[in-house]
Specification:
LbH_SAT, 15 strands, globular, acyltransferase, single chain, serine O-acetyltransferase activity, EC 2.3.1.30, 28% helix, six-stranded mixed beta sheet, Serine acetyltransferase, 18% strand
Length: 195
C-alpha cells in the first residue's frame, strides 16, 4: 500500500472512530494519536535497520514528549489503528496490534517479565480497549473483544469477549454487542471531507 493511500486510510479511520471530528484537516492538525502512529511507522522502519535502533528510540521519546503517547519502535501495529485522546498510552516493544483496533487514553500494553522474549500483549483485529485499562504480559486478546475502562487483564481471552474488573474476567459478547469489522472498501477518499 502506498504512503498517501495509507495516510488517507488513517484519516478516514479517525473520522469514523471519533464523532467529534469535523474535517480531515482538523484530524491531520490536532489528533495526537494519529501523529504518534505516523511517527511510530518511521521509528519502526529505523528499528528494523540495526544501526538505527538508538535513533528510533530517540524518535519515539521525542514523540512521547509531544503527544503523551509512548509506542516502542519494536511494537507491531496493524492498519486503521486509532488512539482516542491518547495521553498516557504506553505500548511495549513486543506488543502486537491487529487491524481496526482502538485504544482510549491511559491504556498500557505492558510486560511482566525482564527476559528478552515475547513479554507484551497481542490484540487481534477489532479489539477496543477502554480508558485506563492495563493489559499485561504475553496474553492474547481475541478478535472483536472489548476491554472495559480500568480493567487489568493478565489472562488471554477468546474472540468476542468482554473483559471487565481487576483482575479482568471475561464473558462472551451478547448478540446485541457485536459490531462488524470495518469494511476496508469504505476507505476511499472523499474530497468533500476536507472541508
Amino acid at each position: 500500500m502506498g504512503l498517501l493511500k495509507r495516510l488517507r486510510e488513517d484519516i478516514k479511520s479517525a473520522r469514523e472512530h471519533d464523532p467529534a471530528a469535523r474535517s480531515h484537516a482538523e484530524i491531520v492538525l490536532v489528533y495526537s494519536g494519529l501523529h504518534a502512529i505516523w511517527s511510530h511507522r518511521l521509528a519502526k522502519r529505523m528499528w528494523r535497520y540495526g544501526p538505527l535502533k538508538t535513533p528510533a528510540r530517540v524518535l519515539s521519546q521525542v514523540t512521547r514528549g509531544l503527544t503523551g503517547i509512548e509506542i516502542h519502535p519494536g511494537a507491531t501495529i496493524g492498519r486503521r489503528f486509532f488512539i482516542d485522546h491518547g495521553m498516557g498510552v504506553v505500548i511495549g516493544e513486543t506488543a502486537e496490534i491487529g487491524d481496526d483496533v482502538m485504544l482510549y487514553q491511559g491504556v498500557t500494553l505492558g510486560g511482566t517479565s525482564l527476559e528478552q522474549t515475547k513479554r507484551h500483549p497481542t490484540l487481534r483485529d477489532g479489539v477496543t480497549v477502554g480508558a485506563g485499562a492495563k493489559v499485561l504480559g504475553p496474553v492474547e486478546i481475541g478478535e472483536e473483544s472489548a476491554i472495559g475502562a480500568n480493567a487489568v487483564v493478565v489472562k488471554s481471552a477468546p474472540a468476542h469477549s468482554v473483559l471487565v474488573g481487576v483482575p479482568a474476567k471475561d464473558r462472551k459478547r451478547r448478540e446485541e454487542e457485536h459490531k462488524p469489522l470495518v469494511d476496508p472498501a469504505t476507505y476511499a477518499l472523499d474530497p468533500a471531507l476536507f472541508i
